[in-house]
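Curious: why this fold?
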Amino acid sequence: MPLSDEIKSFLQDQALTRFLRYVQVYTTSDETVNATPTSQRQFDLGRMLEAELRELGARDILLDEHCYLYATLPASPGVSGQAIGFLAHLDTSPAVSGENVKPHIRPFDGQALRFPDDPNLVVTAEESPELKHCTGQEVITGSGTTLLGADDKAGIAEIMAAMAAMVKFPELKHPEIRVCFTPDEEVGMGTAKISLEKLPTFCYTVDGGEPGELEAECFDAWGATLTFKGISVHPGYAKNKMVNAAEVLGRFVGAMPEYETPERTELREGFFHITGISGGEEEATLKMIIRDFQVPNNERRMEHLRKLADYFEFRYPGLKIERDFKHQYENMWVVMEKHPDSIEKARAAMEEAGIPVKMKAIRGGTDGSRLSLMGHPTPNLFAGGMLFHSRKEWICKSSLRQAAETIVLLAGKWA
């Protein structure tokens, strides 16, 4: 049955209050650091949540040396159903500053969102169509100089609000709930040091976008590093002798498929995405990621790069191009298609909450995609935030409640 107005009001207040508190904690991860966590500041939020979980009466609370926070909410009396897990990540993306976040709440009139610390920064419903559903409601953004941090502090707040409701309202029957808040998801290391034995078999990440999103499929992901080795000669005497690695690399990039890039693809279309270029005349390095939902399409892209490298070596005698391809993660659907019940329970919970379900394939990856391949089927639920990794990031206030409500109802489906 749908939740009472009293429970919904409690969930809204809890999720909002916690969210506004969490986003002000600086937790940006650092992709240049080879450690877990990549930034010690993630412990600041970890310790805050550890104390709040104790206040809720959770058991088996552990904030380990790698900044993974685990806790268990015992099952309702008389309930012995399958334990389930909920996960969200502590860190925010290093793409945009996450320091000194100042959340700003105001009603959205259907026109545009403006930011108090940057009047030139604007979000319109044309740019972010999901805003149309928030007309007449309150919307939360940063101040315009930082990201907001809804990715994924909204997910954390929603999980914590749901747990608080399960404690306060004993009529909300649920099985054993295990939560795990992870570091370094934004730099691809969210499960690097996770203790799988502390997780139940079936889990959910709360790390998606608009209300109703339910994701059980993600990119098949590869990383590519091409190292161009040229020949350096004094530029005054270089004719027919020099092979400028940096210059050739630039021409190589220009020869890549222009319309297979993130800014020109959507839905189930894959891409090449250049993430870094460095070097000089003698040696230059090109780094990129390769993404698609179908393995053969990624294999085609890698073969294209190999053949393009062969051609450039032929075109520029003396040039050598080293190619290194690494598989980063697999499409979680190879696991999730064998466990439709966990997906259907999430769908049923959203429908019970009156939220239209939007089954989507993730144009990226989550901790859940890796966990699924590690033996813990983990679909991804919406958290409500939009325009992640940007100063324009926003979330509708009601989305926080809707996600928390979904978690509560989903727990009931497993009871």
User: Anything to note?
Assistant: Residues 295-315 form the longest helix (21 residues). The first strand starts at residue 59 and ends at 63. The chain has a mean pLDDT of 96. Residues 145 and 369 are 31 Å apart (CA to CA).
